[in-house]
Amino acid sequence: MLKTTVSHMRIALVALASAAAFWASAEAAHATFSEDAGITHLCGGVGAAHLEALKAQAHAFNLGFWMVEGPRGAYLADVPIQIKAGGRIIATFTAEGPLCYLKVPAGEYTIVGSHKGQTRAIRAHSGSMNHYLRW
């Protein structure tokens, strides 16, 4: 019984340490980190230093996308995002910067964003890291 309790405490401490590491990396990148229905996202990248700090976290995620506007691809921030799977919304958040990383179960997703009253949607598979929502 005591052995099981100690084992559960160790597991809880490892999970807590992992979450703290993610929050620390999000803070360094001036990004938002959240988990919604098993979908973890990290968004941000406003400013060159923050963008590089965010890109350094890419290894922990399996889907990535950018939000850009115009022919030169000006970076966008504060974009409301919906993640859909099988036609239903499974996560919603506001992207605080031009780059978002997601940790999702294997599969295909529709990423929907709204900017200046216009909605854009892209389809993306887990494992792909370089999609663009363009306005």
**Cα gyration radius (Å):** 16 Å
Instruction: State the helical fraction.
Output: 25-40%
Count structural domains.
1
| Major beta sheet summary | 6 strands, mixed
CATH architecture: Sandwich
Mean pLDDT: 82
- CATH homologous superfamily? Immunoglobulins
Name of the level-1 CATH class:
Mainly Beta
The secondary-structure element order is HEEHEEEEEEEE
SSE order and pairing:
Elements: H1 2-28, E1 32-36, E2 39-44, H2 48-55, E3 63-69, E4 74-75, E5 79-85, E6 88-95, E7 99-103, E8 108-115, E9 118-125, E10 131-134
Parallel strand pairs: 3-10
Antiparallel strand pairs: 1-2, 2-7, 3-4, 3-7, 5-6, 5-8, 8-9
Please describe what this structure looks like.
With 135 residues, the protein is an alpha+beta fold. It has 2 helices and 10 strands. A hairpin with a 2-residue loop joins strand 1 and strand 2. It is globular. The termini are far apart.
Summed up:
The protein is α+β, with helices and mostly antiparallel strands and 135 residues long.
Which structural traits does this protein have?
single chain, 135 residues, alpha+beta, Immunoglobulin-like, six-stranded mixed sheet, four-stranded antiparallel sheet, 2 helices, 10 strands, 44% strand
